[in-house]
Amino acid sequence: MPLLDIKNLTVGFDTSAGLFKAVDGIDISVDPREVLAIVGESGSGKSVAMLATMGLLPSTATVTADRMTFEGRDLLGMSAAEKRKIIGKDIAMIFQEPVASLNPCFTVGFQLSEVLGKHLGLTGRVARDRSIELLQLVGIRDAADKLGAYPHQMSGGQCQRVMIAMAISCNPKLLIADEPTTALDVTIQKQILDLLVRLQAETGMALIMITHDMGVVAETADRVIVQYKGHKMEEADVLSLFENPKSNYTRALLSALPENAVGDRLPTVSDMLFEAAPGVR
């Protein structure tokens, strides 16, 4: 049985022009211990689909699905109290902008302890020791000293590590990483990806990696879902996707790489789609 099983997910937002479907009838599933990559350009509905799963979209969003289960439990039919016991504990998420996701008014130690207290009941010295252990686990030096630091006193890479520490603090069964290396320099990107892959292997959690970087997909994923404008274009194991992509859009993503530049002009997905007529698919 899949750990997470979503069928026919649709997410809509009311606009002046009517209902806009950011996600339109997609299926997503992930098995225990599996690494699933969801790829596509910005605006393809990757993050929205996962935020809908977490129940983190505003009340103005319309979320429907034929099925949305976690370990066989109906996420859509749960009460808010029931869902709070799962979200942040069994299902955790690393958000795109770590500095913006951390509360600037509270120290790193307070924010880590808050998660540990809410879901595991840890307080005082026990919570402090566990917070230090988590910061050490994600590679932050002088972890005890960093507990008293505020987010603005840390680098982007350090804040991302803190977010990862918070996300794995309760040993989640599923970790969703939403563009986890955005706005980080290349060296730090590599370190963060290596860290996530190592933690996934060590803990056995399932990992959903949201990205537009096909290099990240090749290095980390077991299986890939390709999205475009809210639709799922194709799904395949990572080797099959790279060796034999089925959709024009996937071929466009794979072709729009720096090594395919002509002169000083980089290829774009739009270029490739135009050449791949008829139709996006």
TrEMBL record:
Cellular component per GO, a single term: plasma membrane
Family, as annotated:
Belongs to the ABC transporter superfamily.
Q: Keyword Cytoplasm on this protein?
A: no
Principal subcellular localisation of the protein: membrane
Per the UniProt entry, the signal peptide is none
Q: Annotated Gene Ontology MF terms?
A: ATP binding; ATP hydrolysis activity
The way this protein sits in the membrane is described as: Peripheral membrane protein
SUPFAM superfamilies to which the protein is assigned, alphabetical: P-loop containing nucleoside triphosphate hydrolases (SSF52540)
Taking every annotated instance into account, which residue ranges of this chain make up the domain ABC transporter? 4-254
What Gene Ontology biological process does one annotation of this record name?
transmembrane transport
What is the annotated localization of this protein?
A: Cell inner membrane
Q: Which domain of life is it from?
A: Bacteria
Q: Sorted alphabetically, which keywords does the UniProt record give?
A: ATP-binding, Cell membrane, Membrane, Nucleotide-binding, Transport
Does the keyword Metal-binding feature in the UniProt annotation? Answer: no
Q: What is the designated name of this protein?
A: ABC transporter ATP-binding protein
**InterPro entries per the UniProt record, alphabetical:** AAA+_ATPase, ABC_Ni/Peptide_Import, ABC_transporter-like_ATP-bd, ABC_transporter-like_CS, P-loop_NTPase
Q: Which Pfam families match?
A: ABC_tran (PF00005)
